[in-house]
Amino acid sequence: MAPGSPAKMVVIGAGLMGSALARAFAAAGHDVAVWNRTPGKAKAVGGGTTAFENLLEAVQGRELVVVSVSNYVASFELLSAKGVAAALAGKTLVQLTSGSPADARSGLEWAMANGVDYLDAAILAYPSFVATDYATVFYAGSRAVFDRHLETLRAIAKNSTYVDEKIGSAATLDCAILEAYYGGSLAFLHAAAMCKAEGLDPKAFFAQKNSFLGLLSVTADAAQGMIENNDFTGDQCSLNTHVAAIEHIVRLSKDARISARFPKELLDNYKRAVSAGLGTQELPAVFRTLTQD
Ligand code: NAP
User: Fold this and answer.
1) What CATH topology corresponds to 208-290?
2) Which residues contact 98 (CB under 8 A, 6 or more apart)?
3) What is the pLDDT of residue 292?
4) Where are the chain's structural domains?
5) CA nearest ligand 1 atom 34, residue
6) Is the whole-model pTM more than 0.85?
7) Which of 37, 70, 137, 173 to mutate to test the pocket of ligand 1 (most atoms within 8 A of CB)?
8) pLDDT tens digits, 27-70
9) In sequence order, which ranges of the chain are alpha helices (DSSP H)?
10) What superfamily does domain 8-171 belong to in CATH?
């Protein structure tokens, strides 16, 4: 494919995400075939895409194959269907199904065994973000293969970021960001529950969003430096003092008869670091106990 010319491609999977990806590629002028296990969903994608009922016919002659299904098992079952792997030989497969680094490694193994160029990707966006400035997609694998398709891939996310040649690196970064997202979200939802239980309108808490996000941002920067230097000493606030603060959160939750699971789990982790002799160090010292089982 000459740079800038429309790609002949196929999107396998027309769920919420696959449909948004297919429409974004088509809107950027690419020739997009769509296949989905439930054919009606492929037909419903529209936006100039072409729905196929037969997977082999959908992939034949397509130089770029994008997969977005529920999991890797489903994905590689589809790609191993009769004739499909052979049709993909010499083409590029971009795996946009979410998975673990181990999934990515088995994906690469499959691709190498079948003579297929492989990029393992992780999308950090809701379907409504696709093709907007809010969408980020991380890619791992061969830099040359990524560069070859970058212009096409930018149709789904301007922020299309190459992470590393290590095939599991996009999934690793995705898991890391998602852990911070889910953990942070659970924390603020529990915080809102505490406010409600104590008769304080959760609005008062959400109005302080920038206070806790700012604190998190400063702590993340400090943690990065401390982890790099393997030095967690400081003069701001000891882990002992943080543990006392978390004990207040557990106490509030119990007194107000709401779930104390989350603050107890926090307390457990922070106390473990104190028990390991890190009580006089700064908060990021917990990292030391997290790198052990
Ligand atoms: P979804 O709406 O539930 O769609 C799932 C898709 O997978 C459907 O096309 C479904 O086909 C297909 N599928 C599932 N099992 C299959 C099988 N055994 N054989 C063939 N096809 C199968 O999910 P989604 O939100 O589009 O998510 C797709 C991928 O994107 C997931 O890996 C997800 O983690 C990732 N992702 C999603 C979001 C998001 O916000 N939605 C964000 C980031 C990443 P049928 O229609 O026939 O059931």
Assistant:
1) N-(1-d-carboxylethyl)-l-norvaline Dehydrogenase; domain 2 (1.10.1040)
2) 71, 122, 123, 171, 174
3) 83
4) 8-171, 208-290
5) 98
6) yes
7) 70
8) 999 999 999 999 999 999 999 999 999 999 999 999 999 999 99
9) 16-27, 39-45, 55-59, 72-79, 84-88, 101-113, 143-153, 169-197, 202-206, 209-229, 239-255, 261-273, 286-290
10) NAD(P)-binding Rossmann-like Domain (3.40.50.720)
pLDDT of 4 = 67
Q: What is the reported pLDDT for 76?
A: 92
> Which pLDDT score is estimated for 2?
58
Q: How far is the CA of 290 from the centre of ligand 1 (A)?
A: 32
The ligand 1 atom nearest the CA atom of 97: 32
Kindly give the number of the ligand 1 atom that is closest to the alpha carbon of 38.
47
Residue 126 CB–ligand 1 contact under 6 Å: yes
Indicate which atom in ligand 1 lies nearest the CA of residue 99: 32
CB of 171 within 8 A of CB of 123?
A: no
Q: Is 123 in the pocket of ligand 1 (CB under 6 A)?
A: yes
Q: How is residue 293 annotated by DSSP?
A: -
Residues of the chain with pLDDT under 50: none
74 CB within 6 A, ligand 1: yes
Burial of residue 161, with CB atoms counted within 10 A of its CB: 0-12 exposed, 13-18 middle, 19 or more buried:
middle
- Token pair, residue 21, equals 């990806």
Cα(45)–Cα(18) distance, integer angstroms:
9
36 lines ligand 1 (CB under 6 A): yes
Task: Tell me the three state secondary structure of residue 159.
Answer: strand
**Res 5: pLDDT:** 82
Q: Alpha carbon 289 to chain centroid distance?
A: 25
Residue 266, SS3?
A: helix
- Which atom of ligand 1 is closest in space to residue 14's alpha carbon? 9
pLDDT of residue 214: 96
